[in-house]
Design a protein that fits this description.
The complex is a heterotrimer. Chain A is mostly helical. Chain A contains six helices and no strands. Helix content of chain C is 72%, strand content 3%. Chain C has two domains: 416 residues, no CATH class; 73 residues. Classes of the chains: A mainly alpha, B mainly alpha, C mainly alpha.
Chain lengths: 167, 105, 634
């Protein structure tokens, strides 16, 4: 059976992202989890590129891998959590979590298996290019965009206030 | 290439995130799993964006803008959330969510 | 002047508001001036309106104020109708009302200043409601006034609300009135259903178009009569009126003798065409009126409470009026309403003067020989007695005689019974008079010491009413005296719609009429002499009455009968409902729901462990279940 290059790349990226995602939840060491999550984010960025969303891919790497995950890592190091200090959960709850998550997976798969959607064209589109998205962002979505800056500001202030000792 | 592939991949990532939230007790790991779930949804949004762009919809870029805003919110959320976790850790020397059961009363 | 008719009810309403709201701040004299002034001013306006209305050829005028109810095709305006009938009632209500207000300023003087203002507020509100009742241009407005006077009657009977017996009397009056009101209301609904209107001219027009033989008109007529029987204390709903004497005496005079209880007569006179078109109902009205007249008169023979005698006399006279309505003599009924308002108000106010002098004593056995202490009260009371007994020349004679004559035309047996009742009336009134005013004083020494003539505010209304009781009859002189009845001519337009439907009946020859008049007069005078010889030197020997007298003293045991056949079973039923349905059914259900929720929440509360992990777990399970359900439903 002939597989296109796209499908091969998709398959490889998907396998890596699922394995690393599993690594996130299964590793005992939080630092390993963070590293696995970063790998997952990179593979997702790869998917974005495959889907002609170059701008989002770049933003994704910058925001998630560059900022958010560094922050996580930073906090973990700060708390000295890199050891396996997490006490073991009661086992039945762990299995219950796995089973219910699996049930959700099965149900969602079952529900969406026969979803009626058109296949993706192999060709590229240009809506994901910076210039196009930028035009949309600064014309149609300029107000939410500006509002998001207020969100950031408040998040920043919130983080400072919460983090301050003896607020 | 069918969009179903992306749907299945997203579901898989999302459910892995859910399992992580359910199975782990470390607040930071749980937080990371939430990020994973957000990303699963983002991926699906981008896939659908591409699907609609292929179908000739000029406003398909809206989905990507949506993803963009999700990222914005996620970044803000992480900033505040991690601050809270640091605070909890500072007060109780632990990030185990099971000790955070004061909601009961 | 007609367009200012709204002022007539408005002024008492204003008086009510001022007195009601300012009852803590107004002094007694101010409250009295406001209360009496409002009604007096209304009387002046009524007089001006009356002068305009009494001009020959005056057409009934409707003065609309605003739209009251407008629903679909039904329009009920808030409008006043000024015509001969309502103008006459205006005069009676505001005229007698003013006198009684003035009387009250003296009679109620022992009240606290707040109670005094409250009393005048109620009295003004009553006058307002009564005016709405007679001025309303449709049945709904009449009903508003109808309910208003019922409410005021309740408030005033229970004016001394600290006494449980008085409160019970007030409740009895209110509840009995409600039974009648239901009939009235059903009558209005029937009218709306069948005529699509409640305004007088339209209803009468449509009723006249239906003509005799229609089934709707008797239904409406009987329903309205049920309402009238409740308000005007006819069989079987009359027992509230004697109990209503619990209220202050001026209230008994105004509400329970002169005005409110005549509302039923007003309503039937107003709706005359409905009754003319339903002869069977007319017969029922006549029979019930006559039965009430006889029954109440017999009870009055053996009552010892001065106000109870007058109360039963009122019931009896109201029965007379219904008899007149029943034989189709609408004018005569209205005539008797007018004369009765004069002499019965006079008698009540006179009894009030006596009670006042006796320091609240109402038992006539404890009175006697009052004529030398209270000359004005004595003379005016005597005039009232003569008037109600029907001594020729006084007002009661003309109206009562006219009723008797009209009854004679329609039914000889009824005439006999009515004449008997007239004789009983004369007998019990003069029994009352002789026991109270003649003989020697039987009260305590202290009471004797305090006996005095009442002040001018009491005696002047008595004198005015006494004069009216004498001359009031001359507006309705029968034709035998060679003149024509002014009243009959005046009221003719009101009863004109009925005229085409009244079957021509024989007219009494003048000889017969003279004969009847002479017969009743002679018999009445003989009866009075009987009463005089029995009671002139009355001594209360304190022996309990036996036989028929005991039955009469206990009012034929009607109250006990009602108690046994209606009140007791109702109480038992309600007790059963309380025990079986309320307590063990509804209460248990409600408490059970509460207990169930309490128990359930105590169980469910345990789920709130505070474990975030568990919450998320529950959330995911919920999502799975939702998906499965959605999947299955698809």
């Amino acid at each position: 059976m002939g597989m296109s290059l796209q499908q091969i790349v998709f398959g490889v990226l998907s396998i890596i992202s699922i394995i690393s995602a599993l690594g996130v939840i299964l590793s005992k060491n939080p630092v390993t989890s963070v590293l696995c999550l970063i790998v997952t984010f990179f593979t997702i960025a790869g998917h974005y590129i495959m889907l002609n969303a170059q701008f989002l891919a770049v933003v994704h790497i910058i925001v998630y891998a560059g900022a958010i995950m560094v922050l996580f890592l930073f906090v973990i190091m700060l708390m000295n959590l890199n050891a396996e200090i997490e006490p073991q959960k009661r086992n039945w709850l762990k299995y219950a979590g796995a089973i219910s998550g699996g049930a959700l997976l099965l149900v969602l798969l079952g529900a969406l298996r026969e979803a009626d959607v058109t296949p993706l064209q192999p060709g590229s589109t240009d809506i994901g290019l910076i210039s196009n998205l930028g035009k949309t962002l600064f014309s149609q979505y300029v107000v939410p965009f500006e509002v998001s800056s207020i969100l950031f500001l408040s998040a920043m202030v919130g983080a400072v206030v919460i983090g301050k000792r003896e607020a | 290439m069918p969009v179903q592939y992306y749907i299945f991949l997203s579901i898989a990532l999302f459910c892995i995130g859910v399992m992580g939230v359910l199975m782990r007790r470390n607040a930071i790991i749980i937080f990371m799993c939430v990020e994973l779930m957000l990303n699963a949804v983002n991926l699906l949004l981008v896939a659908f964006s591409k699907m609609w762009a292929d179908a000739g919809r000029v406003d398909a870029g809206g989905a990507q803008i949506f993803v963009f805003f999700i990222m914005v919110v996620a970044a803000a959320e992480v900033a505040a959330g991690l601050a809270i976790i640091v605070m909890v850790y500072r007060n109780s020397q632990s990030v185990d969510i099971n000790i955070m059961n004061r909601l009961k009363n | 002047m007609i367009h200012l008719v709204w002022l007539v009810p408005f002024l008492p309403l204003l008086g009510f508001l001022v007195n009601g709201l300012g009852r803590r701040y107004l002094s007694k004299s101010l409250a009295g001036i406001v209360g009496s002034g409002a009604v007096l001013a209304a009387f002046v306006i009524s007089l001006l309106i009356f002068l305009e209305v009494k001009a020959p050829g005056f057409q009934a005028q409707v003065v609309p104020l605003f739209d009251f109810i407008s629903a679909g095709s039904l329009h009920i305006p808030f409008a006043f109708q000024v015509d001969q009938l309502s103008a006459l009632f205006l005069l009676i209500i505001t005229g007698v009302g003013s006198l009684i207000h003035i009387y009250s300023t003296s009679y109620m003087h022992d009240e606290s200043s707040e109670g005094f203002a409250r009393y005048f507020a109620y009295l003004n509100l009553f006058v307002f409601s009564m005016l709405i009742l007679v001025l309303g241009a449709n049945y709904v407005m009449m009903f508003i006034g109808w309910e208003g006077v019922g409410l005021c009657s309740y408030l005033l009977i229970g004016f001394w609300f600290k006494n449980t017996n008085y409160n019970n009397a007030a409740k009895k009056a209110f509840i009995m009135n409600r039974i009648g009101d239901l009939g009235f209301l059903l009558g209005i609904f029937t009218m709306i259903v069948h005529f699509g209107s409640v305004s007088f001219p339209e209803v009468f027009e449509k009723a006249a178009a239906l003509g005799e033989g229609s089934k709707v008109i008797p239904a409406i007529a009987i329903l309205l009569f049920v309402g009238a029987a409740g308000k005007s204390a006819q069989l079987p709903l009359y027992t509230w009126l004697p109990d209503a004497m619990a209220g202050p005496t001026p209230v008994s005079a105004l509400i329970h003798a002169a005005t409110m209880v005549t509302a039923g007569i007003y309503m039937i006179a107003r709706s005359n065409i409905l009754y003319t078109l339903a002869p069977c109902i007319q017969t029922i009205v006549a029979i019930i009126g006559l039965a009430t007249a006889v029954l109440a008169a017999t009870i009055a023979l053996k009552q010892d409470d001065i106000k109870k005698v007058l109360a039963y006399s009122t019931v009896s006279q109201l029965g007379y009026m219904f008899l007149a309505l029943g034989v189709g003599a609408y004018t005569t009924a209205v005539f008797h309403v007018m004369t009765h308002a004069f002499f019965k108000a006079l008698l009540f106010l006179g009894s009030g003067s006596v009670i006042h002098a006796m320091g609240g004593e109402q038992n006539i056995n404890k009175m006697g020989g009052l004529k030398k202490y209270m000359p004005v009260t004595h003379i005016t009371f005597l005039i009232g007695c003569l008037a109600i007994a029907g001594i020729p020349g006084l007002s009661g004679f003309f109206s009562k005689d006219e009723i008797l004559a009209e009854t004679f035309i329609s039914n000889k047996i009824m005439y006999g019974i009515a004449l008997l009742t007239a004789l009983m009336t004369a007998f019990y009134m003069f029994r009352l008079y002789y026991i109270t005013f003649c003989g020697k004083f039987r009260g305590t020494h202290e009471q004797e010491h305090h006996l005095h003539e009442s002040p001018a505010a009491i005696t002047i209304p008595l004198i005015i009413l006494a004069v009216l009781s004498v001359v009031g009859g001359y507006v309705g002189l029968p034709e035998v005296f060679g003149t024509h009845s002014i009243l009959k001519e005046y009221l003719a337009p009101v009863f004109a719609p009925s005229a085409p439907f009244i079957h021509e009946h024989e007219h009494l020859t003048h000889n017969t009429e003279w004969l009847l008049m002479a017969l009743s007069s002679v018999l009445v005078i003989i009866t009075i002499f009987f009463a005089r010889s029995w009671y002139r030197n009355y001594e209360d020997n304190g022996e309990p009455r036996t036989g028929i007298a005991k039955v009469l003293e206990n009012k034929w045991y009607v109250d006990e009968l009602y108690d046994a056949i209606i009140v007791k079973p109702l109480m038992m039923l309600s007790r059963f409902f309380e025990e079986a349905i309320e307590k063990s059914g509804i209460d248990r259900l409600v408490n059970g729901v509460g207990r169930g929720v309490h128990w359930g929440s105590q169980q469910v509360r345990l789920l709130q462990s505070g474990q975030v992990g568990f919450y998320i777990f529950a959330m995911v399970i919920g999502m799975v279940v939702l998906f499965v359900i959605g999947f299955l439903l698809k």
